[in-house]
Every structure is written in C-alpha cells, then in structure tokens.
Design a protein that fits this description.
alpha/beta; AB_hydrolase_fold; 276 residues; oxidoreductase; Epox_hydrolase-like; Arylesterase; eight-stranded mixed sheet; AB_hydrolase_1
Length: 276
C-alpha cells in the first residue's frame, strides 16, 4: 500500500495512506471526521469517469494512516496536506474538502498559497469560525463542544452511533437515501480511528479561519445542505460564501451533513460543473 511520510514520530515516521488513480487534472479529496478517504467513493467514481486524476488520503489518526498522539490541529493537518501535494508533485490541482477537510483547504491556502492549486471546493463546511465569542456572535456556544468531548470520553462507541444518526438525518432519510448497512460501515470506520485523535479534533473545529479567507485567490465552490444538523448552514456556509471573494454557494435542498453519500448525484453534478 502507498504511504507518504509527513513527520517524524517517537520511534518511526508518521505516514499517511493514500490512493492515486486516473489521469488528467488532479483532484485531491480530503475527508471528513471521523471517516477516511474511502468515504469519497461516490465522488471518486464520478470524477474518474469524467477524466480526472483522483487522489484521496486518510488524515493522520484515521483510516489506514498512522495514529500518532499529537498533530490534530489545523496547522499540522495543513502541513500534512502540503507534504502530500509536494511528494506527488501535484500542479494545477483542485482541493476538495468535506466537513473537517474544509478546514485543511482553508488553512492550506491561507498558509502555503495557491502556487499548486487551480480551484477549491468545500462541502459541509467548518469555516469561517464555529465558536461564539464577543467578536463572533453568530458562532456556537462553547458548551456544545465540551458536551461532545465529554460524550466521546465517556463512551466513544455510543457517541458515534448518535452522531451518525444526525450526520445522515436518519430519521428522515434512513432507508431512502442511506441504508442501515451504510451507516454501520461508517460506524466501523469511525470507531477504528485513533481514540485520542478523535477527541483532539474537536478542539481543532474551534479554529478561527477568518485571517485565512482573504488569502484564498482561486475560484471557490461551497456546497452545503440546508438540513445540515451537524454544521448548520447559517453559522457556516452562508457566512463563508460572503467571506471569500467571488465564492459560489450551491445549497442542496434537504441535504444533511453527510450529503456526499445521501445526495451524491446533486453534489457530483455541482462539482463536475464547477470543474468544467
């Protein structure tokens, strides 16, 4: 299996698992929490069929990548992405980040610039800034994130069941757009991730990306579901679209947070149109 070294660990390098398929303009898919690169399977198939080169990788701590005890902050995660782009010498690439992956896209462009990047796509977004503060009254109260951390610490396995129910809006879409088996598959991946990494990522969600946004100078597409319970659209995508010059917002009616699965046709249509 192919791996890319992104850092030194205590007694061995920290390596990320990746897959690289197809030819044409490279599209780098950055997955959401708590899943892995395989969660992009519906987008990968569509992108390959459209003639693109598709690269997925598992974030540190998740999937088949190494599970170090640290590095779950966005500065490090953006550095990991930079190592992937550099190792594969990708040029004219399109970054596509879902959920937590939207933070990697934002911090990467804010830190490393767009020399290697042609376009950016963010789906089910975290930026611009989730935490409610005096200068960010539209954010979410910090007690919400403390509750998530407490629930993960108490019983990570039970927490993931409840989380995925809202991730896919199972009470509305279960059996129609998402099967019990697909939910179980997501749970299996989620609980196989690093326990510490799973917990540490919650603090990463509170990152303030507002200083990164003016530095994004490539065409940007934002895709978000209007029924997203995990990252409600008013606190995230609506604000983000107003903060990136020229950004386009595509709202998916009825789309939950996990819309790359439940509304894959709608997501793929918007994504491929933007790439064209």
């Amino acid at each position: 299996m192919p791996f890319i070294k992104v850092a030194e660990g205590n007694s061995a390098p920290v390596e990320l698992y990746y897959e690289d398929h197809g030819a044409g303009q490279p599209i780098v898919l950055i997955h959401g929490w708590p899943l892995n690169g395989a969660s992009w399977e519906k987008q990968t198939a569509a992108l390959l069929a459209a003639g693109h080169r598709v690269i997925t990788y598992d974030r540190r701590g998740f999937g088949r990548s190494d599970q170090p005890a640290d590095g779950y902050d966005y500065d490090t995660l953006a550095s990991d992405l930079n190592e992937v782009l550099t190792a594969l010498d990708l040029r004219d690439a399109v970054l596509v980040g879902f959920s937590m992956g939207s933070g990697e896209v934002t911090r990467y462009l804010g830190t490393y610039g767009s020399e290697r990047i042609d376009k950016a796509v963010m789906i089910g977004v975290v930026p611009p800034f989730l935490l409610r503060t005096d200068d960010n009254p539209e954010g979410v109260d910090g007690s919400v994130f403390k509750g998530i951390e407490d629930a993960i610490t108490a019983d990570r396995f039970a927490f993931m069941s409840a989380f995925l129910a809202d991730f896919y809006n199972v009470d509305v879409l279960g059996g129609e757009r998402v099967s019990d088996q697909a939910i179980q598959a997501s749970w299996n991946v989620a609980v196989g991730a690093s326990a510490k990494g799973t917990l540490d990522c919650v603090q990463a969600w509170l990152t303030d990306f507002r200083a990164d946004l003016p530095r994004i100078d490539v065409p940007t597409l934002i895709i978000h579901g209007d029924a997203d319970r995990t990252l409600p659209i008013d606190a995230t995508a609506i604000r983000l679209a107003k903060s990136i010059a020229g950004a386009r917002l595509d709202v998916v009616p009825g789309g939950p947070h996990g819309l790359i699965w439940t509304h894959a046709a709608e997501v793929n249509s918007a994504l491929l149109a933007f790439l064209r």
